[in-house]
């Protein structure tokens, strides 16, 4: 049986498991209980309904740009043809390359956390999917990371564009800020995220799309949101 730390047990005293409370109150509680020394992430976790009425499962994988960002810093690499290298460097990317970057990837010697690739280079990077895929680094047109709009995409990623996807059980999570964010900024990000998610509901889904919502911090306890 998993043992809980003394700090966690103390935090448990502030949770009312039978009570659903509103977002503003939850944000205050979550930030109050984010007692670790580092700037904890504030996360929203949801259970969504992905069962079609006539059988079959649906998958949600997309990106959302929160108005106040997530506070998470990415090390961004751009893989492009040599004619676009200068443009990529001016975009603010942390790493830029062409065939030389592919060599680093093939050797496994890379430390970026996001990879942008121009369409013309996808043919070369495809065979390295086994290296990039498990790390969640494979460029994807649906996520905007396969593009010729290098400057815009780098800027979006730097300013909080984040990927969201559900698992096979319909669980989905997203960071909506940091402990250092104001309550107002976290609440604004939360509302934007939930409104965005509701618009992503497939037409084939009948009934309620969002089944439950919880908010927590990296090392804290979770609180159930009372109103969706």
Description:
- This protein is an alpha/beta fold and 228 residues long.
- It folds into 2 domains: 19-71 and 161-224, Ribosomal protein L1/L10, rRNA-binding domain (Ribulose 1,5 Bisphosphate Carboxylase/Oxygenase), CATH 3.30.190.20; 76-158, Rossmann fold.
- 29% of the residues lie in helices and 21% in strands.
- It has 8 helices and 9 strands.
- The chain has helices spanning 6-12, 23-32, 85-90, 99-107, 122-125, 129-132, 150-158, 183-199, and strands at 41-48, 61-65, 76-79, 95-97, 114-117, 161-165, 171-178, 210-217, 223-224.
- The strands form 3 sheets. A 4-stranded antiparallel beta sheet has the order 7-1-8-9, covered by helices on one side. Strands 4-3-5 form a 3-stranded parallel beta sheet. A two-stranded antiparallel sheet has the order 2-6.
- Helix 3 links the parallel strand 3 and strand 4.
- Helix 2 crosses helix 8.
- The longest helix is centred in the C-terminal third of the chain and has 17 residues, at 183-199.
Q: What's the structural blueprint in terms of helices and strands?
A:
Blueprint: H1 6-12, H2 23-32, E1 41-48, E2 61-65, E3 76-79, H3 85-90, E4 95-97, H4 99-107, E5 114-117, H5 122-125, H6 129-132, H7 150-158, E6 161-165, E7 171-178, H8 183-199, E8 210-217, E9 223-224
Parallel strand pairs: 3-4, 3-5
Antiparallel strand pairs: 1-7, 1-8, 2-6, 8-9
Helix pairs in contact: 2-8
